[in-house]
Amino acid sequence: MNINIQEMLAQEAFRTAPHLKNRILEAVRLFKAGVDGTDPFAFARMKEAMSTSDFPQLLGAGFQISARDTYEATVPEWQAIAPVRRVNDFRPAKDIDLFGGREAFDQVKEGEEYKGRSIGEDAFEFSVLKYGNTFGLTWEMRKNNQFHQLLDFPGRLGSAARQTEDEQVFKQFIADGGPVASFFAAQGTIPSTALSHDALVAAYKQVVARKTKDKKLIRLGGKPLNLIVPTALAMEAEEFVNEDKIVVGSVAQKNPLKGKFNVIASETAAELNGTNGDTAWYILPAKESKYASVAKVTMAGEETLDIRVRRDQGERVGGGAIGLEDGSYKDDTIDYRGRLVTGGATLNGLGVYASKGA
């Protein structure tokens, strides 16, 4: 019995579905069924579909949707600590914070002139950069029927995009050697103090005692501070700040840290700080606070992950277009590319604190 391949393909759901969204979905389903390996007929149908002009395009669109779904479903760590700042292009932008003139008025005696005051400003500059990578399916892999290599790449790109965002924000205050000294300049020397209840009490007292350039005590607006710890210290941190009572000697007392901190267990913090990543801890003001210390920067119109496929197959010597499935003219590879425009920025450093840990 002879099988007419063209008639068979014409009946495939990725061609007969009534709407583009459905055709994309059916292309992804056929690809997954073929890659699964349990149905030889599904694999043969998928291979034939790969030789058409429309199936790879629908599949690529499906990959982009899948990668964006993973990107949207993954909650990045930066969202807990950083507000968003937007720029229109790659040029640096600025936040301006005015200070001065908030102290109580001076007394003015009879006939005396009013004393003058000055206003100063702090400028916080921020910008974005472009990040990305390609994911290639080589000709040899396709000949060896290793299409499964493409199956998980959308998720990889979505996860990689979120990891990029986290790193750009956390790198503002964490380096390989530990806390970035310039970021924590307000506290002076960065200690090597293990995370403990007493250490947190001392750190909290130091932060809330600081004064602005207006000579006013820092005001946190009732928001708890963010306590960022590696996942290895998460349980201890939660115990220190969330328990209603603490035991001092043999007497149970009210926990003074209750409600003062929001614990954030961070994998990114530990990864960036290779030297003492399992012991260092950091305190940053709430992102809603006037004293937010870091920001996530994004470009207007480029807020999400962008995925594209390279089309440089060339043409046959005798004429005629070559399908995407045959790969690049240069190296026979089908290349997909993920691009993300993002950045991190340092804002107000008045309310921060860090320790390298024990």
Descriptive keywords:
elongated; 11 helices; 5-stranded mixed beta sheet; single chain; 15 strands
Low-confidence stretches: none
End-to-end gap: 76 Å
Helix content: 25-40%
Q: What radius of gyration results from the CA coordinates? A: 28 Å
Instruction: Give me the count of strands.
Output: 15
Q: What characterizes the major β-sheet?
A: 5 strands, mixed
Shape: elongated
Tell me the number of helical segments per DSSP (H or I, 4 or more residues long).
11
Class from secondary-structure proportions: alpha+beta
What is the average per-residue confidence, as pLDDT, rounded to a whole number?
85
Order of helices and strands: HHHHHEEEEHHHEEHEHEEEHEEEEE
Amount of beta strand = 15-25%
Structure in words:
By secondary structure, this protein is α+β, with helices and mostly antiparallel strands. Among the domains are: 1-52, no CATH class; 193-289 and 351-355, no CATH class. The chain is built from eleven helices and 15 strands. The protein has helices at residues 5-10, 13-16, 20-36, 40-50, 54-73, 139-143, 148-151, 153-170, 197-208, 234-242, 267-272, and strands spanning 84-87, 93-99, 120-126, 129-137, 174-175, 178-179, 225-230, 245-248, 251-254, 261-266, 281-284, 294-299, 306-309, 334-346, 353-355. The strands form five sheets. Strands 1, 4, 12, 13 and 14 form a five-stranded mixed sheet that branches. The longest helix is centred in the N-terminal third of the chain and has 20 residues, at 54-73. The model has no long low-confidence stretch (mean pLDDT 85).
